[in-house]
Amino acid sequence: MSRPPRKRSRRPVVLGATAVAAALAGGLLIALPGAASAAASGLADDFNGDGYRDLATGAPGAVAGGKAKAGAVVVNYGSSGGVSAARHKTTSQDSSGVPGSSETSDRFGTELAHGDLNRDGYGDLVVGAPLEDVGSDVDGGSVTILWGGSSGLSGGTSIGDPNASGHDRFGQSLAVGDFTGDGRADLAVGSTGKDVWIFKGGFTKSGGAAGKLRFDAQIESGAYPKGAVHLAAGDFDDDGTDDVVVGSSTGNFVHRGAPTGPTPQTGVGTGYASALTVADFDRDGHDDLVVGTDSAPVLDQTAKGGYVTVFYGGAAGVTTRSGVFTQDTAGVPGADESYDLFGGALAAGDVNADGYPDLAVGAGFETVGSASHAGSVWVLRGGASGLTGTGAQSFDQGTSGVPGANEPSDVFGGAVHLADHDKDGRADLSVGAAGENSDDGAVWVLRGSTGGVTATGSVSFGASSVGIGKSGQDPMFGDVLSGS
């Protein structure tokens, strides 16, 4: 999961949870934008350093190296015209310089995160493949850093599992942030165990992390979906050091960042978190935490179709001040219906350049017209009082200007992302629909504007347009987006 940049000078901007690129068979580059002539931009998701934020997308079901469901990631490069299908690069474990090899059901690209891990000014992409077999360790999982550079992502470094015998699915959750307060980007990695590992900043392409720290969260370990199902980074107490949020099947726990490793602060909410995101929605200097609960427990009657809760930050960290949003909240279009999965995907960014981050909420199982599980996305506004339902927008494939049509099981909104890809100062909304065209998958990009997100000029592209063939399998392109 990732969070939008903060306008603060005392520490570098780092974003957590994101995505990738370089070509499926050998890293073929297609219409890559020209390398920056000056220094790299330093943006955490600018993989080629040209000053434009890029979009990374996972296709964990893609065929790679002839292996079914080996997985791949795609980077679509930002530009003055925004994101397009043509300007992309696709990467798998068969790409030159990437550690390992593509194997059946590895699902490389299941989890993504980004940040400038080696401090060279180029964004790097962290890729989780939690179902990869490591030697005799079935579903042991792997984590790979793909390095940014003037030509985009190239080569990679493996991050070894320090406790392979103690858990499975290493890399099922990722987050990037400065968790030790030394001004360097660290990498947090979760698994099915209680143990969460912080790989310390000072990364090198040849040696990996500068060191590692372990902390154990107050969560259940065991078979998936146990352990650290989600991770997020945010500075909730405004002390200049990022805190770590661990989302699990039984609740969410905030661990305060510290030089010796994160320490427990508090539990936040109960039940399974389907998604996490972080931003300072009221601009009080403290990050705020949003938790998506797309499938409410039996005893939780908050909403039939899911809900999102914002927990506001303060001097002592995450506070009890909170707000809950559903499809029945005043100003939010639609109606609360069973199994919509509202809150199943979250992202934060300022879509109208008013200085306040806004919140994108996906509901991949929303029924639109007669199309069950077609999916929808909402954008809620940030402001001086925090998030509000007033002025909320909603989009689906039936919205005027949005390409395509609502069809059963498209799962439009199963992944969402907000970032300014054309450098106009407004975040653009990217939407993944892994179920589009019988699980081939597709991505849509809608522009930010002074009035909010607009469908005017929006684009969409599917798996085949970025070099991913179906080959009798289900690529699920768009299953995860950088920052979602």
Describe the secondary-structure layout.
Elements: E1 29-30, E2 55-59, E3 72-76, E4 88-91, E5 111-115, E6 124-129, E7 142-146, E8 156-159, E9 173-177, E10 186-190, E11 195-199, E12 212-216, E13 230-234, E14 243-247, E15 251-256, E16 263-270, E17 275-279, E18 288-293, E19 307-314, E20 317-325, E21 342-349, E22 358-363, E23 376-381, E24 388-395, E25 415-419, E26 428-433, H1 436-439, E27 442-449, E28 452-462, E29 480-481
Antiparallel strand pairs: 1-4, 2-3, 2-29, 3-4, 5-6, 6-7, 7-8, 9-10, 10-11, 11-12, 13-14, 14-15, 15-16, 17-18, 18-19, 19-20, 21-22, 22-23, 23-24, 25-26, 26-27, 27-28
Structure description:
The chain has 484 residues and is mainly beta. The protein is built from one helix and 29 strands. Strands 1-4-3-2-29 form a five-stranded antiparallel beta sheet, with no helix packed on it. It has a four-stranded antiparallel beta sheet with strand order 5-6-7-8, with no helix packed on it. A four-stranded antiparallel beta sheet has the order 9-10-11-12, with no helix packed on it. Strand 5 and strand 6 form a beta hairpin. The radius of gyration is 20 Å and the shape is globular. The N terminus is likely disordered.
